[in-house]
Design goal:
heterodimer; A: mainly alpha; 25 helices; B: mainly alpha
Chain lengths: 446, 451
């Protein structure tokens, strides 16, 4: 029982199961739990912009080398490009082979497109120039106020480089930002205490609102998507991790806390700060983590990529729209761009899909209506795959930069329980509330 | 005369007297002076979010521990709940006893509701979960940018607790936040030099726009409200203070500067930073002040509470709407909630009233129109009562925590002018600007000597 109180992941897992049960057996009560999940996601999201800022600035300032920042950024982008292309291709291949939509014979003219009107209007695609210009904030404070991660990242990189150039003159400011970073991560630790509550509420809402029954109607699609995601994680990411010298299953076990939180809330952002802390503790270099993970949340959405091609083919098959090989290549090309613009919010993948279908023009956008009911369930697997993909990206780029402490990483992966206990004692999870007696011993040791 | 012009409260008083004179003699000129008052309130408001942040954070981090923070917050909420409930009851009693609206025989269907449409749409009642979710900022910086006091308090609490948990690792950040706090209060001291102008402009506008004539029509309601507020302050709050070991009259004299600024601007927010500093100097513990005063500006609006019940009773009487006991209790229950969410802005009480009447549904919302003309005058007493109530709440909660330095408080209260002179010397009010021709050198040396 004491171990249970110590481990956040077990609490979250229990909460997810309890939420699913409540949602299934008492849908209306489950739906009413929604504010719990929303509140938790809001709690984490309010801190993401400042956490990204402090991590990136301290990381870059300590790295102290402009060339290196550029190199890490470039390597990260190259890696993202390769991995997401692979994910898109795999989604396309699975869509062709499994053909989850074949035989549904849906007439797009009879579909009620009003349910997706919000998505299709939100989803007009941006030109490259617009996208690049949008990375520059209108005003620095505005970028933080709106919580625009790419803009915050952009300003943080500038700030970090400038701070590094100041050398000794900047030490006081650097110390302050470093201290701020500690405070913010400590706040995250306090917030994580209510993670089980958030996971419970979000899960109860999802199951209560959409129900298990909605799973059955598109069972083949969902199964295909989950299987593909699983395959991607174990085979593709597994191979990548093997190259860096680590084992994927151990890695998954290492980030189980983050995985369960994302599973519960179906938002990969809710675990972003935790993931950053954990990757640093694994032995990845701090500046690499600071750059790669937030960037990855915009550019390295593996799960979303798989979903995009798979869903596109599904709609084509269900509406009996013939797609030639040339068109498939065109879809792939369009998605290569649109998948990068998809923000890491719940349902963000849906908007991107709408934009893509509109851009390709052949497959009826109204077909999206078929997916609405199950989108929330797809979102779970999407968010988890995205999360794992970004963790792996941080490891890979660190390794590529020869800044991965492999010894340390192996030791950490081999003994997850010890790492979690250490985290616990270091006070990442505020001890006082969970187990009062243990708190005193923790205080005694520090 | 010399003493009067040297002290801020004397200057503010002078500004108000001049304001009344200008507003009464030349109403159009008085109305045109509105920007002076609005400008001053804006100057103060722009600093409130950061001042709350630095005060709450340093307060919590210094005393440390979320347990204490939780206890203080809990005690504060209990105190607020008790104080505002008493205020709500007082409003009902005053309304029933004096019947300010009886015999007006207003037909609600013939009232022009256009004047209040802005308030009724703004006053949509929030559900409990919406309210709670609304306390969590979308993004931390956004909370400051939108100047949402509750969101800022929420983040400041988390920040302070985290900082306290970090101990020595957080020293650098704590020192920085403290410096920031000193800086902000210094900026506030500079802004306060303009308080006499702000009070002058706001009073000239109020008198010029609404005039003494507005008072006559609803004189009875205004009279009853002022009386109820006086009873609340001089009986209820006096008892609370007596329990803490202090005398009310001396306390009022001690915060006269804040009272006059609030009276002049009819916004209790414009004196919030000053009040926090002053109650702290009285001997209340800093973390308690840092928590209780900002929280009280959202949850401890005694003046607004009196106004809400009294005005509801008034509208019911004026429109001849009978209220059964059960209905009355329902209204009371709704008011217990809406009075807490009324933000501490000028006119905020009006929006809360609209929300309440809409929620209850029996008393015609159109009746609010009757109150539009005198709302500004009611607002004065509301803001003053809210201000005094928050000061007293800070004292009472400090006492409850066993952290009120009673010796010090008594000494401070018995010699208010010495405190003001000390403040003056410490440069809270910059000496050069306040009295140009007066012995500057001594003031300068003392200013530079303080930290």
């Amino acid at each position: 029982m004491k171990r249970l109180a110590h481990s956040l992941y077990a609490q979250v897992l229990i909460a997810v199961v309890a939420g699913a049960l409540l949602g299934h057996f008492h849908p209306s009560l489950g739906t009413a739990m929604r504010p719990l999940g929303e509140g938790f996601i809001k709690l984490v999201k309010m801190l993401i912009a400042p956490i990204v800022f402090t991590t990136v600035v301290t990381g870059i300032a300590k790295m102290g080398d402009l060339k290196k920042v550029g190199r890490v950024g470039l390597k990260a982008l190259v890696y993202f490009e390769v991995l997401t292309t692979l994910a898109l291709a795999i989604g396309l291949a699975v869509g062709k082979i499994v053909a989850p939509g074949a035989g549904m014979n849906v007439n797009p003219a009879t579909l009620d497109a009003s349910a997706i009107a919000n998505y299709t209007t939100a989803g007009h695609s941006m030109s490259t120039a617009d996208f690049l210009l949008n990375i520059i904030p209108k005003d620095v404070v505005d970028a933080f106020a709106r919580g625009d991660i790419l803009q915050v990242l952009f300003f943080s990189v500038l700030c970090g480089i400038a701070l590094a150039a100041l050398k000794a003159d900047g030490t006081r400011l650097l110390h302050l930002i470093d201290g701020l970073s500690h405070v913010l991560f400590r706040i995250i630790a306090i917030i994580m205490r209510v993670a089980p509550l958030g996971a419970f509420g979000a899960m109860a809402f999802t199951v209560g609102k959409y129900g298990i029954a909605s799973l059955l109607s598109l069972g083949k699609l969902i199964a295909a998507f989950y299987a593909t995601s699983l395959l991607f994680v174990i085979v593709v990411l597994g191979a990548v991790l093997r190259w860096t010298g680590l084992n994927v299953f151990r890695f998954l076990r290492y980030i189980r806390e983050e995985i369960f939180i994302v599973l519960g809330t179906s938002s990969s952002e809710s675990a972003l700060p935790l993931l950053m802390g954990k990757m640093e503790r694994l032995g990845c270099s701090k500046p690499v983590v600071g750059l790669v993970v937030p960037m990855g949340y915009s550019f390295n959405l593996d799960g979303t990529s798989i979903y995009l091609t798979l869903a596109t083919l599904f709609i084509a098959q269900a509406t009996n729209t013939h797609v030639s090989l040339a068109q498939e290549m065109e879809i792939l090309a369009v998605l290569l761009l649109t998948s990068k613009g998809a923000a890491a919010v719940t349902g963000g993948g849906f908007i991107t899909l709408a934009a893509t279908l509109a851009a390709v023009g052949n497959i009826p956008v109204a077909g999206l209506t078929l997916l609405i009911g199950v989108d929330r369930f797809m979102s779970e697997a999407r968010a988890i795959t995205n999360l794992i993909g970004n963790g792996v990206a941080a490891v890979v780029v660190s390794r590529w930069e020869r800044e991965l402490d492999l010894e340390h990483a192996r030791a950490a992966l081999a003994n997850v329980g010890a790492v979690e206990a250490e985290e616990y004692l270091a006070g990442r999870v505020e001890p006082t509330a969970a187990v009062p007696e243990a708190a005193e011993t923790a205080k005694g040791r520090t | 005369m010399n003493r009067l012009t040297r002290s801020l409260w004397g200057q503010v008083l002078l500004g108000m007297v001049l304001g009344v004179a200008v507003g009464a003699a030349r109403p159009s000129v008085g109305v045109a002076l509105q920007p002076l008052g609005d400008g001053f309130i804006r100057l103060v408001r722009m600093l409130i979010a950061p001042i709350i942040f630095t005060t709450v954070v340093t307060g919590i981090a210094k005393v440390g521990g979320q347990r204490k923070t939780g206890r203080v917050a809990w005690k504060a909420i209990v105190a607020f709940e008790a104080l505002t409930t008493v205020a709500l009851v007082l409003g009902v009693v005053a309304g029933k006893a004096f019947g300010p609206g009886t015999g007006m025989d207003v037909d609600p269907r013939r009232i022009d509701v256009r004047a209040i449409s802005g308030y009724t749409t703004a006053g949509k009642a929030l559900t409990a979960s919406e309210f709670l979710l609304g306390i969590i900022p979308k993004d931390v910086v956004d909370a400051f940018a939108k100047d949402d006091v509750l969101q800022v308090i929420f983040f400041s609490l988390l920040f302070g607790i985290a900082l306290a948990a970090l101990r020595s690792a957080g020293e650098e950040v704590l020192a920085f936040v403290e410096d920031l706090s000193a800086l902000l209060f210094r900026v506030m001291a500079i802004v306060m030099r303009l308080a006499p102008f702000g009070a002058f402009g706001a009073v000239a506008f109020t008198v010029g726009k609404f005039g003494p004539g507005a008072l006559v029509g609803l004189g009875k309601l205004v009279g009853v409200f002022y009386l109820a507020c006086a009873v609340y302050v001089f009986v209820v709050l006096a008892l609370v203070l007596r329990w803490s070991g202090l005398g009310l009259v001396r306390f009022l004299r001690y915060i006269r500067q804040e009272l006059l600024i609030t009276l002049g601007t009819s916004s209790s927010e414009s004196a919030l930073p000053l009040l926090m500093e002053k109650v702290g100097r009285l001997g209340c513990s800093r973390p308690v002040v840092g928590l209780v005063v900002p929280l009280g500006y959202s949850f401890n609006l005694a003046g607004t509470a009196i106004y809400l019940t009294l005005a509801t009773v008034f509208i019911a009487q004026a429109t001849n709407t009978p209220i059964a006991l059960a209905k009355g209790l329902a209204i009371f229950g709704v008011l217990l909630v809406t009075s807490k969410t009324a933000a501490a802005v000028t006119g905020g009480g009006f929006i809360a009233l609209a929300a309440t009447l809409t929620a209850v549904g029996d008393v015609p919302v159109a009746g609010l129109t009757l109150l539009v003309g005198i709302d500004r005058i009611m607002s004065e007493a509301r803001a003053l009562t809210n201000l005094v109530g928050n000061g007293v709440a800070a004292v009472a909660v400090s006492r409850w925590e066993g952290e009120l330095d009673l010796e010090r408080a008594r000494r401070v209260l018995s010699d208010v002018s010495a405190v003001e002179a000390e403040e003056y010397a410490a440069g809270r009010v910059d000496p050069h600007a306040a009295v140009p021709g007066l012995d500057g050198p001594s003031g300068t040396s003392q200013t530079s000597g303080t930290s």
